[in-house]
Amino acid sequence: MVIETRLVNTRILPVSVDQPDSATIQLAAEVLRAGGLVAFPTETVYGLGANALDADAVNSIFAAKERPASDPIIVHIDQVSDLAMVATDVPLLAFELASRFWPGPLTLVLRRSERVPPVVSAGMATVAVRMPAHPIARALIRQAGVPVAAPSANRFARPSSTTAAHVLEDLDGRVDVILDGGPATIGLESTVLDLTRATPTVLRPGAVTLEMLRVVIPDVQILTRYLEVDQEGIEAPGMLLKHYSPRAELRLYAGEIQQVIPAMRQNARDLAAAGRRVGLLIPDSEQGDFSDLPVELRLLGGDLETISHHLFDRMRALDRDGVDVILMHGLEQSGLGLALWDRLVRAANGQVIWCTASDSQG
Ligand code: TXA
Ligand code: MG
Questions:
Q1: What stretches of the chain show up as alpha helix (H) in DSSP?
Q2: Chunked in runs of 10, what are the mean pLDDT values of the chain (362 residues)?
Q3: Same domain assignment for residues 306 and 256
Q4: Is the shortest distance between the CB of 12 and ligand 1 below 6 Å?
Q5: If you measure from the C-alpha of residue 268 to the centroid of ligand 1, how many angstroms do you get, rounded to a whole number?
Q6: Cα atoms found within 13 Å of the Cα of residue 119, Cβ hemisphere only
Q7: How many Cβ atoms are within 10 Å of 9's Cβ, its own excluded?
Q8: Which domain holds residue 308?
Q9: Which ligand lies nearest to the CA atom of residue 73 in the structure?
Q10: Do 141 and 264 fall into the same domain?
């Protein structure tokens, strides 16, 4: 299928995070107001922004990303009072959550206001809203004077962009302006919490963790569609949205680390022997476990925050290296670890290779 995308001259404008230059922000805000597209850093990942009240502008986001129209987009605001512009029947809980977690990596699904065109929400009666914490994002939204619809600034189904270079890699000629404010801090997308259900439900785990939400909402649920895989790693077919994926196939390992490392080593050797180019994404501490293998090693860092921050960047790097298969193992699944695990399971298309003690013998 050929998607019509008008090629534009993409301008990359460096912006200081601490003191966003007002002339640059002004220029980008004018592009937004005129119906153009501006990619900008947030504390989670880079967003591909358009005026959320302009249906044509929002349509051009879908075209630029080659994103199916069935996938709704998050609306970004600069102050809590702007909630009234984009949502209706806002429950008290939303204000309580906003006072605790905004600005920050929490997106709330609410009832959509008539002012927000249906295309933003893929025709649904709800709208997802977030107030980002990043100074450049805040300055841009404030200056634009309109709510900003922005999905992650990647081509559909590619890993989210966490640097301006990633945005350029995927969207050169498809976005008018890229505000380059350096790497996004967290590196994983926001927590999406649906407040329109009988019980508040996390649709996507993120840096505002389930544990943090439970303090405010003791009965908060999580939609485990992407997280629950059985010991064979088989989910109901068709249930999994392939997402956040490198071009290479991702093989995700889980289980006891004493079993996981030998299984990954064996698999890497077998794949390399079969002529396939293999990449490994590993915590720094495991470099010695794999450095003798004929593979591309990419280190993720030490702690969960650092590993999350680097994940999408290192996936993209292995794609550029031209590997066919990427091997990685899961880490802890609490706190931010749940968000990381969610992205890995999606990137692995729901397949998890569970390593038990009996597997590793021989
Ligand atoms: O951190 C983030 O959330 C980044 C930055 C740019 O803010 N944005 C982002 O957008 O990740 P996107 O479009 O890549 O992911 C938005 C997620 C999707 O899973 C989408 O289905 C969900 O939010 N979503 C958006 N609107 C929704 C709605 N009305 N109801 C339910 N889910 C919604
Ligand atoms: Mg996305």
A1: 22-33, 55-65, 83-86, 92-101, 135-144, 164-171, 210-216, 257-273, 287-290, 304-321, 336-347
A2: 70 97 98 98 98 98 93 97 97 98 98 98 97 98 98 95 98 98 98 97 97 98 69 42 79 96 98 98 98 97 98 97 97 95 93 80 42
A3: yes
A4: no
A5: 35
A6: 18
A7: 7
A8: 249-359
A9: 1
A10: no
